[in-house]
Amino acid sequence: PGQYIVLHPEGEEKPVFMALASGPGTNPLELLVGPGAAEKLGLDEGKSIAIDPPGGKGFPIELAEGKNVILFGVGSGMSAIRSVIEYVRQHRSKFEDESNSS
């Protein structure tokens, strides 16, 4: 979680950077595309978009294992936080504070 991809829309000089919204290993790939990003991408039918492999270190999610997790995100950070939420949901048993168990 926390990686990004670079999109290269056909006919555009500048690439578009987007955070992955899906958890690691999720297929299909999910992106949260707002109106501004959709305009930059020019999502017209039949238009090609080249996609680079995921980049960035991602979040050090393993540091949160064995603990309760509280996440905050706003604006464009919501995509990156969504990938963490999906990862935690898939591996729920790893993210509980065992010292509070009864």
Q: State the total count of DSSP E strands.
A: 3
Unreliable spans are none
Strand content: 5-15%
Q: Quick one: overall form?
A: elongated
What does this structure look like?
The protein has 102 residues and is an alpha+beta fold. It is built from 2 helices and 3 strands; from the N terminus they run ββαβα. It has helices spanning 35-41, 78-90, and strands spanning 4-9, 16-19, 49-51. Strands 2-1-3 form a 3-stranded antiparallel beta sheet, with helices on one face. It is elongated and about 55 Å long. It starts with a strand and ends in a 12-residue tail after the last helix.
Relevant terms:
102 residues; three-stranded antiparallel sheet; 2 helices; 3 strands; 13% strand
Quick structural gist:
The protein has helices spanning 35-41, 78-90, and strands at 4-9, 16-19, 49-51. It has 102 residues and is an alpha+beta fold. It starts with a strand and ends in a 12-residue tail after the last helix.
